[in-house]
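Supplementary Methods, section 5.1.

A reviewer requested that the exact input to the structure prediction be made available. We therefore reproduce it here, unchanged from the version used in the analyses.
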Amino acid sequence: MPNNVIFYARYSSDLQDEQSIETQVALGRAFADERGWQIVEVFEDKAISGTRLKTRPGIQAMLRRIKRGGIDLLLCMSVDRISRDMEHSSGILKQLRHHGVELWTVQNKAPVNDMELGLRSIINHDMIEQTRYKTREGMKTSVRKGKAAGGIAYGYRMKLEHDDKFNRIAGLREVDEEQAEIVRWIFGQYAIGRSPSDLAIELNNRVPPVPGPRGLMWRDTAIRGHRDRGTGILNNETYVGRLVFNRRQFRKNPETEQREARMNDKSEWVVGEVPELRIINDELWSKVKKRQLEVEASFAHTTTNRLNRAHRAQYLFSGLLECGVCGGPYAVMAKNRYGCTNRQKKLPIAHLGVGVCPNSKTISRAELETRVLDAIPANLLSVESTTSIQDEINKQLSTARKTGERDKERLAGTLLDVTRKQELVANQVAERLMAGQLQIAAFDRLLEDLQKQRNELEAELGRTAIKRTGPPKIFVINPSMYQMAIAALTAVARTGNTEHDEVQRHFNFIRELVQKVLVSPSADGKSPDLTIVGRLASILASMQAFHDYSAGSREQHKNEFARRVRASAFNNINEKLEFQNRFHAVLAEEEADWKRLQVSVVAGAGFEPAAFRL
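The structure derived from this sequence is encoded token-by-token as follows.
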């Protein structure tokens, strides 16, 4: 009988009843009591989709608890509470199996096996895809009929109308005249040459202030938006009587589990005509579009923006500078001097009591780059460090050769597992067809994916089977060439020129070390304080820590040696030498460990960002 049982509960949407968690837990406890089990811990996730895993705190805490051991059984209401994603479900079950934990559901009153979990995950995944497709197609139909498919844009309010059954008709909008006047004012002022920043400042400073979209303070980005994406006040085509839907599609990044937007082809856009919602006339709309193009063209020819379209940093630390007071970006203001953009735009900062950022300090690009580059220590880029790098690389090459056979066994085991899954799914498809049931498209896609995995594994196994002949190659670093390369790197970085690809690669190396620089007012009111955040800070901190440690060890050793001499603990000179040699051997071993630490940081092995004040 299981001694330690944990229960997991989840519901998907914040529109659902929060008591859903209480209901699941109550049913789980009743089920456990019937069998004489004791639920020792309960984990839950509220209003989080089952298609996520990394960003669900409850299930992550549950998995960490299982890894600590001492759990016999995991109980949940149904399989879809654990996950609605095929890959996630399989991975979770593997972890449970590894730690000897059974998965039970209240719904089926039985343990869950691989076959059941796989099939239910496929069906859940297919249901989600069908729901997503039907919802999107329904929204397209609504837009074609002149109904809004999203939220309420600034300048409009919900229109209350009911059908024959007295149900409210969703998606209807009407003009909010008070907000519409603000929209017309924004368009008119922008057309005569005023910037979105000036307009946002004026709206926030009016007495009484004008509430922005969603009741927030006005920002220039809410007005400017993005012309191609149709975002922002100046790009909302509803103001000229057109509802535009399906400009973009959103896909979830499997690594971050965050949605990423991608533009659809214009032929896929859905447009609905809504002349009753027009706020701006065509003449004013055309003037605004013309000025937007002129502004974009002027920026495309300036020295500070000509590389923006290539998404390339023009200066060494472009995009890496941050105000240490408000957290806003530091950017070039004038005459190659950096300053806080939030202060320049006079934007209200929430954590500063909706006040303007008080950081008025500016710093020249030359001074900032010199101070940061000078922070790269000589001992980090010295000849001595090449020995550690060289040894580490050769160690990794040797390890790679030794693990070749283990990789081959792992690949063979994975191939066998994929083959078995393929057979299980194929049998399920055959059974459904023989029973006259409808074919599920997700099964077909799964079979195709499994076949692709099988082909890739067989190809990789074939490459692994090729035996390497001859002695292993030894990697050797030329210290002089290494030193010259580092000198060239810092010299190129100081030029501040990123127009050539070769130079850009040098820049990228430095930018990997320096991930962020905070610029803050100094205590003496002179040149601002700079704080490096990133791998370079970790490297500097590790070397400083070892320097302090080794200095302390040497001092401690010197005192201990003197104490023993005074106490006549050494019988002869050989015992004194032996004592000294033991200390130096221990210190050398510790020094080697610290050098390997530095190498791993230089190689980008994933140190947590640290801060280092210049």
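Residues 303-311, 377-383, 595-610 have pLDDT under 50 and may be disordered. These observations are discussed further in the main text.
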